[in-house]
Task: inverse folding
């Protein structure tokens, strides 16, 4: 049902745009420089579809927060500027851009443009998530320097994906990312592979090692240093130790140690 509703909305928007174009056709001598700022929605829609529209004028138009979605539809179909990278980014970031335009356009953006989209407060949550998913999918093909920058400055979800990076400086930068959360780290510590650098780093981290859920996740990670296991086992409630013992991936020495702690506490 939502899919059909979205299709109906899209068709209605296209019909309305076509009607607007029929109602108003700009004269050849029209000055687009002035018309991109015109208060009339009909004029702005006509300008958006005009083949004379330049990249600079399109970007000026896209700075308008009152831009009708029909104008954004026209911009996306205007072959003279629709493929310009700056225009594509501005279209994606505009709050009135319909999802059926912004989400497919995201796939054409560069990594740091995707990062901009994911971090901008005005962008809708589902559009941000789409940008993050595209960016995370590209991480294996992105250079070391770009991954490092994304780990430091990217959104929480992107930084979380870089907690399992093979380069220590990138993993450390992700740990320090201001949008990093306890939940992201716990999830990363429970990953099947790739925690060889992460678990020891978290075990030494002054901030994250204070969190109970992270301590419990460290117990179940084979790459956690044994000294850390001994430390956190003495700080967790007995119930958490029993839960950790139910994990099938515990290292043999860790399992034996925890069994001893639990048995001693039960006396």
Result:
């Amino acid at each position: 049902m939502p899919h059909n509703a979205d299709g109906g909305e899209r068709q209605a928007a296209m019909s309305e745009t076509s009607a607007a174009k029929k109602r108003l056709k700009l004269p050849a001598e029209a000055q687009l420089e002035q018309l991109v700022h015109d208060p009339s929605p009909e004029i702005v829609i006509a300008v958006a579809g005009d083949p004379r529209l330049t990249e600079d004028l399109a970007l000026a138009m896209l700075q308008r927060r009152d831009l009708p979605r029909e104008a954004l539809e026209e911009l996306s179909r205007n072959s003279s500027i629709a493929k310009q990278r700056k225009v594509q980014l501005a279209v994606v970031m505009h709050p009135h851009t319909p999802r059926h335009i912004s989400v497919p356009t995201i796939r054409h953006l560069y990594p740091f443009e995707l990062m901009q989209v994911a971090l901008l407060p005005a962008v809708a949550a589902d559009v941000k998530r789409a940008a993050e998913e595209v960016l995370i999918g590209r991480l294996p093909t992105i250079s070391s320097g770009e991954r490092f920058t994304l780990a430091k400055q990217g959104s929480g979800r992107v930084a979380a994906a870089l907690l399992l990076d093979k380069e220590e400086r990138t993993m450390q930068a992700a740990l320090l990312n201001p949008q990093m959360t306890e939940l992201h780290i716990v999830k990363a510590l429970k990953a099947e592979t790739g925690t060889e650098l992460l678990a020891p780093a978290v075990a030494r981290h002054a901030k994250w090692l204070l969190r109970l859920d992270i301590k419990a996740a460290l117990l179940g990670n084979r790459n956690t240093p044994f000294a850390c296991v001994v430390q956190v086992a003495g700080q967790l409630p007995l119930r958490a130790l029993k839960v950790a013992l139910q994990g099938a991936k515990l290292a043999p020495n860790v399992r034996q140690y925890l069994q001893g702690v639990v048995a001693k506490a039960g006396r």
